[in-house]
Amino acid sequence: MILEKLVAISGKSGLFSIIGNRSNGLIVEELDTQKRFFASSRMHQFTPLASISIYTEDEENTVELREVMLRMLFAMTNLPVEDANADSTKLRQYFSQIMPEHDRERVLISDIKKLIKWFQFLHAKGLITETNLQKPASTEVEEEA
After folding, report:
1. 82-96 tens-digit pLDDT
2. Which domain holds residue 88?
3. Which of 18, 108, 7, 16 is nearest to 51 (CA)?
4. pTM, whole model, 2 decimals?
């Protein structure tokens, strides 16, 4: 699963793949340039893409980023992905078609822009596929009673 290995890093643009970790940060590789470097946890916050969810109108539920990206992927044939630099009305219309249940007050236009940029970047790199966006199989072993 691709989203499990990707992070966004505060203060850095783009997406990064986790290569290794240390007690004081992560060794990451920039997906665009394949440049590897150490990102200190003292200077940066790390947000794994797999941990991102989108708010819905039902305050108790959210939709995982992987599900939103799957919806975008399946809709691409009939509904092209909107340009991330389009005006806010067009972005909201597009996202409302992809995810009609999103909370319009808590999901900001800047969030939609970032999501579209990430999707377009990952899709252009060939990393967005139905297989890559599937949930990883549970590693928990159920105990028999």
Report:
1. 999 999 999 999 999
2. 53-124
3. 7
4. 0.85
